[in-house]
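[job 4471] stage=fold_predict status=RUNNING
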Amino acid sequence: MSITENSILLRWLAGVWAVLTGAWRESGLGRFFRGCESAVRRWAEGSGIWQFVWRDGTLPRVWPESISCRLFTGILNIPCAIAKWIYRVGKGLWDGSLAFRFVSALGGASFVFLGLLMLVMLIVPHSYWNNAYGLLGAVGVTALFVLGSAARPRHRLEADRLGPYMLFYLILLFYALVGSLSTSLSMRYFLFHVTSFLLVLLVVSSVQKYEQLRLVVALAVAGLVIASLYGCYQSYVGVEIVASQQDMSVNEGMPGRIYSFFDNPNNFAEILAMLIPLDIALFLGAKTWRGRFWSLAALVPCLISIGATYGRASWIGLAFAVLVMVALENWRLIPVALVLGVCAIPFLPETIYNRILTIGNMQDSSTRYRFSIYEATSNLMKDYWYRGVGLDPQVMQRVFQTYPTMFDGSYPIHTHNNYLQMWGETGILGLIAYVGVLLYGLKTGVKQFYKTMDKRVRHMLAASIGALCGIMVISVAEYTWFYPRNMFIYWFLFGVIFTCIKLGRSEQQSK
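[job 4471] inference complete, writing structure tokens
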């Protein structure tokens, strides 16, 4: 028997919980809420708005059989096709080669190297990190996957699973490169977008079953834990207070904000907000007490670290991510989660509690600065809303300098908002494509969540959807891609959603 089964305390708590839930089910209030649920469900299912939102759109429906899909997928799989052809031509030779079999085995386990890439990405200190490492790593793992696909007829780059909006998004990114006011500057961020797309493609293509996805996510979480442990160490010894990162006039007594291996506390907080839900999914999906223990233990330094970053937007984003996850898993627990969250606030450390109170405070210089940035951005948008200035914040910085300065005489570095930044860089069509990709991923993920029977996949899907919703909320107040490592993890998270969708659909087809 497991430790949990032998624990008198846990058995007593489980018994109390069973009594309380039974009493709730039989209570008049419980019956009332169940009646409300049924009424709302019947209304929603018969609603024209619901049918419009929930239906399969024309584009996604025709996408798999379309010429565009076949052409897009075919072009991407040219390297795989060449590898398969070379293998077929010399099959006898290759099968007898120990070196080939070794490389082929590595290629078949490319998901492991993807997980290791994410781990390394999370633990390399900022002073040693070069964003080119992300591109080289993604290209390297892709090459390994291609080599591994030679002897595996069914292995291919499954770009078709990402839907039609991803193709439009990529086309508009390329347009933003060639139509940029400075193509040479834009090339840098275009390569970051290429890296991000490869990460999405690799997660979806290399993972064939849940155990593989769990390993990839576990390696990423391991990297997060290492970064968080260092963050806890920084919190213990203290870090220098940076005036530009915290307004001490409204945050009196607040210590320096930790940043771990990253350049900025907000960068670290955003990464934590994206990956903490995945660790929760590992906990919920664990079948042994050891798995639950280690995933729960991993959560502790991560939560301490996100608190010590004092990243308000990320706190809100993580809270929203958990709320979305709870809503998918069991929406009846939302009131409980909200009550527990509110009740926990007074028990928070005083500095964190005071920091929460500054949310929305216009006396905080960072809040005032953001609104000044938005005003400067609106001036730029009047001239470039339809076409954009081109990829890379550096291009936008140059354009900002042709407009009036902000209240302090400076120019914005970026728009402090993902959506405004994408609009300013790629134009209105680029913004629509970007939002379309995200909404398509969320909608498809939610629909598949209710069709998937494997609870482990459901937990991971709920967590990744929640995490994406959380970072989308954070993106309203922060430009989360200014630090490219965050951009890579953002799209890795997006890839996890579509991998869960793939696993859920495979389960349906097998039955």
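[job 4471] summary: The first helix runs from residue 3 to 6.
[job 4471] exit 0
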